[in-house]
Design a protein that fits this description.
By secondary structure, the protein is an alpha+beta fold. The chain is built from ten helices and twelve strands. Strands 1, 2, 3, 4, 5, 6, 8 and 12 form an eight-stranded mixed beta sheet that branches. It binds cytidine-5'-monophosphate. The site of cytidine-5'-monophosphate has 11 residues, from helix 5. The site of cytidine-5'-monophosphate (C5P) has 11 residues, from helix 5.
Length: 302
């Protein structure tokens, strides 16, 4: 592609995920702290007379789990942005996926955020940030965070995000699985397991304090995911992965979002490499990711 624009977008973990009883619209109220981790998809847009999407996956991404062509979240992002400005959907979009699919890492949301930013540039729309965040929220609960990046407090159904102070430089070991988990299935199991969930989910004070202090041990103690019991109920073997990671020296392991990816917070980059090295022979893919990292950003090529 000539005149192409590449936008790099990170995966997320939820350091804290408080989930309340379902709202009348079926979504669950969330009180969450997102953190963007150094695992990325690249979305590249270039000019074309028609509309084309090409999705490429790296080795550890299950291509068979991708939605069918035309029904991808990047198609929806393109249509939504174009409708907002009254322009035609035109261009060639390539998605290079390194974030595992249906993994609880918001890979699809990252692609939607990347498509919004790349097409905004390609079509020279100069959409104001507030409009872009609102469009992102219409595409999915995690899409606004993929724009914002860093560490952020999320409320509503997750789409209302505000950056929070984060003095740490954190290291995660990430263990994804080829067979994903469906987010709606995990929320349904949450409803079955927690029929008395509060209307207002409990908040993440301890996590916010640990981020502000850059205190990795305090953060390890404070990590919490209300969806973890539901994910473990659907995939009991994930408990063994968490235990193995902690045994290998991870300070704390947890399920990322709705799972099935297991993430382990480590005390340093060296400790993360040691934990990953210990786990690597037992699992298909073991990755290391620093955090926090920037949200959707242009990649400038020489
Ligand atoms: O917003 P998103 O498209 O990521 O949500 C996917 C599905 O996850 C929703 O259709 C819903 O079943 C569930 N969900 C939910 N409450 C949220 C976010 C997602 O029930 N806050």
């Amino acid at each position: 592609m000539t005149n192409e624009i590449t936008v790099r977008v990170p995966a997320k973990v939820n350091l804290y995920l408080g989930v309340g009883a379902p709202r009348p619209d079926g979504f669950h109220p969330l009180d969450t702290v997102y953190q963007a981790i150094g695992l990325y998809d690249d979305v590249t847009a270039g000019p074309a007379d028609d509309w084309r999407v090409d999705v490429r996956t790296s080795d550890h991404v299950a291509a068979e789990a991708l939605p069918p062509a035309g029904d991808n979240i990047v198609d929806r992002a393109a249509r939504l942005l174009a409708a907002h400005h009254g322009v035609d959907v035109r261009g060639e979009l390539r998605v290079d996926k390194d974030i595992p699919v249906a993994a609880g890492l918001a890979g699809g949301s990252a692609d939607a955020a990347g498509a919004l930013v790349a097409l905004d540039r390609l079509w020279q729309l100069e959409t104001p940030d507030d409009d872009l965040l609102r469009l992102a929220g219409e595409l999915g609960s995690d899409v606004p965070f993929a724009l914002v990046g860093g560490s952020a407090h999320g409320t509503g159904r997750g789409e209302l995000v505000h950056r929070v102070p984060d003095e740490g430089g954190w290291w995660w070991v990430v263990v994804p699985f080829r067979e994903g988990l469906s987010t709606p299935d995990v929320y349904r199991r949450f409803d079955q397991l927690h029929p008395d969930a509060p209307v207002v989910p409990t908040g993440p004070l301890a996590v916010l304090g640990a981020l502000q202090d850059g205190d990795v041990r305090a953060l390890a103690r404070a990590l919490h995911n209300d969806l973890q019991a539901a994910a473990l109920d659907l995939r009991p073997e994930l408990a063994d992965v968490i235990a193995a990671g902690e045994e290998a020296g991870g300070l704390r392991g947890m399920v990322s979002g709705s799972g099935p990816t297991v993430v382990l917070l480590c005390g340093s980059g060296d400790e993360a490499r040691q934990v990953a090295g210990t786990l690597a022979p037992s699992y298909d893919t073991v990755l290391i990711a620093p955090a926090p990292v920037a949200g959707a950003h242009l990649v400038v090529r020489a």
